[in-house]
Amino acid sequence: MRRHAFTLIELLVVIGVVAVLLGILAPSLARLRVSAYESKTLAQLRDLGVTIEIYLQSSRDTYPWRTPGEPYFFAPPGTMTGSISTSDDPWALRYLWPVLMHQTAPWSEHYLSWMGSRPSLGDNRLPWQGDGVGSPQYPAYEYSNSFVGDPSCWMPSGRAIVRPIRQPSVRFPSAKVLMFDASRSYLPIAFLEDARRGVLLADGSAALHHDSDATSPVENRLRPSFGASIYHDTQAGVLGRDF
């Protein structure tokens, strides 16, 4: 008996069919991967909501706050390697909020989840140790500036100051973003334009929203040169709503 061998034409046909199938399936597989990461993001944001609730209970219902000029040591207590800095910028708390979470949520157990879907560092280095020269890997989830300034910062009049914000001050907790996934590093470029963003609302719930559905931001009177950013610069701050 003669063995049947593929001819060149048959081989090209098979390659062509496989290429067509891959072209059809690739977008669906990419979408499934994005959906998986979105589910992971929602789970991490819900956990963050629990962490913030515990923090509020231990701080007399006051949201995370750091006095401007007070040093930041970006590493867990007892850790010899980390970065330390002093900043007069109260809005830096948007990415430095972990320094206030040591007692509520130990970094060794929680920090990797705060990084969202960003890749972890190699060489057995921990995220807050960064690249080994003092540059830590900051969390993917940002803390809204609305919880650092008086609502008048985003209103045409009133005393624009930075101050601690208490939980009862939030007028629409189910519509006010407390934290959000600033990086969405898991998204392929093709999905960026129409992708949803994971947000943690002040009532502790997590959701996925399109940025285009968010309330238009307004200028922060204390930092006009930075422009207005959604979720950070909500009109009337914690008295306003993002959706």
Provide a descriptive summary of the structure in words.
The strands form two sheets. The protein has a four-stranded antiparallel beta sheet. Strands 1-2 form a two-stranded antiparallel sheet. The relative contact order is 0.15. The protein has four helices and six strands, in the order H-E-E-H-H-E-E-H-E-E. The chain has one domain. It is globular, with a radius of gyration of 23 Å. It has helices at residues 8-58, 93-96, 107-114, 189-192, and strands at 71-74, 83-86, 141-143, 177-181, 196-201, 206-210. The termini are far apart. It is α+β, with helices and mostly antiparallel strands and 243 residues long.
**What is the averaged pLDDT score?**
86
**Largest sheet data:** 4 strands, antiparallel
The radius of gyration computed from the alpha-carbon positions, rounded to a whole number of angstroms, is 23 Å
Strand coverage percent: 5-15%
Question: What is the terminal separation in angstroms?
Answer: 73 Å
Tally of individual helices:
4
Number of separate structural domains:
1
Task: Label the overall shape.
Answer: globular
Major sheet strand order = 3-4-5-6
Descriptive terms for the model:
243 residues; 11% strand; alpha+beta; four-stranded antiparallel beta sheet; 4 helices; globular
Provide the fold topology:
Layout: H1 8-58, E1 71-74, E2 83-86, H2 93-96, H3 107-114, E3 141-143, E4 177-181, H4 189-192, E5 196-201, E6 206-210
Antiparallel strand pairs: 1-2, 3-4, 4-5, 5-6
